Amino acid sequence: MCGIENDKNHPNTRQLLEGLPKNWGKWGPDDEVGALNYLQQAEVLRGVAAVRQGKTFTLQVQIGHPGGDPMWPARNPSMRFNTLDRSHYQAGKQPSMTGGAEYCDDVIFMQLQGSTQYDALGHAWYDNQLWNGYDASSTVGGMAKASVLPIAERGVVGRAVLIDMARHRGKKYLGRGETFNHLDLLAAAQAQGVAIEKRDILIIRTGSMGAFYEYGKTEFFKDLVEPGLTYSRELVDWFNQMEIPNLVTDTIANEVITDPVSGVQIPLHCALMRNLGIAFTEIVLLEELAEDCAVDGQWTFLYTAAPLKIVGGSGAPVNPIVIK
Ligand code: UVW
Q: C or N terminus of the chain, fewer CB within 10 Å?
C-alpha cells in the first residue's frame, strides 16, 4: 500500500478520531469479530426474508486473470504454478496411478490482500493498539489476536443492501478520487427506492472494478486515486448508530486513502475497523449484480461469505455469494 511521510501539518490519527465511539469491550475482552456480532439469528432470518427470486451472484474477482489482478502495484501479484500436469506424465517424471488415472496439482503464492478479501480486524491500527485494545506487537510473525481466522470460523450471513453510487451520479464509474459520505449513501438509497436498515451489510458500488477490467491494469493504475467514502465524525457516528457489521466495496481500500480535509491516511480503517470493529471486504466485483438490481429494482438480498481459514492471517480471499 502507499504511504506518505508523517507531516507535522497534519493531525495524527489519534487527534483526528479523539472522542469518537469505540466498541472495544462491547463483546467481551477476547472478542475478535467485532461488529459481526450484530449478525445473530434474527439478522440471518432477515437476510433470508430478503430472498424473493432465487437469483445468485458471486462477487469475487478472478485470481490470476490474464489482464492482471486489481491489487495495489506495491503488493506482489498472485503467482500460480503447476506442480504436476500431463507434461510430467509425458516426460516420464510421474507414473500414472494403478489403473491409469492421472491428475494435476498446482500451488499459489499470493498476498492475502491481493484479491477479493476480508481484512482481519487487526489488519490496520494506530497508537500500538488493534481492535479491542490488543497490542500491536501481537501482529509480529503472524497475527496472534484479531486475525482473519475468527471471522472465517464464524462466516458472515445477513441482509445486505447495494448502494450504486456511480449509477446515482449518472456515471459508469466514479472519477479519480471522487468522494461521497453517508448522506450521499442515503440520497442514493432514496433514489433507488430502498432503505438502509440497521444491521444491514453495506455494499457500495463505485464501478472501480469494472473500470479495471475495461481500461486494463496499466491505464487503471496510472496516477490512481481511488474514489470512495471519506472521513467525517458524522459518518463514523452514523456507521455506529446503524450498527453496520460489514462494509463491502468494489475498491481496493474501501475509502479514499488520504482524507482530503485532514491529510490523514486510512482514517476509516482506523475509525470503523479498529475502533468500531466493522469488518472490511474489498475488491468485490459488482457489475453484474448492480445491473440486475437496476433492472428488477431489488437492491436487498441475502449475503453470505466465508473467507479462507488462515491461521494468523491479516486477511483472506473470499468469494461472497448473494441470493436475491
Ligand atoms: C490498507 O488499507 C492498509 O490495506 P487494504 O486496502 O488492503 O485494507
A: N
Q: 124 in ligand 1 pocket by Cβ < 6 Å?
A: yes
Q: Taking the domain 21-73+111-323, which CATH number applies?
A: 3.50.30.50
Residue nearest to atom 5 of ligand 1 (CA): 253
Residue spans per domain, the chain: 21-73+111-323, 79-109
**Which atom number of ligand 1 is nearest to the Cα of residue 269?**
2
pLDDT along the chain (324 residues), means of 10: 57 97 98 98 98 98 94 91 98 98 98 97 98 98 98 98 98 96 98 98 98 95 95 98 98 96 97 98 98 98 98 98 98
pTM: 0.96
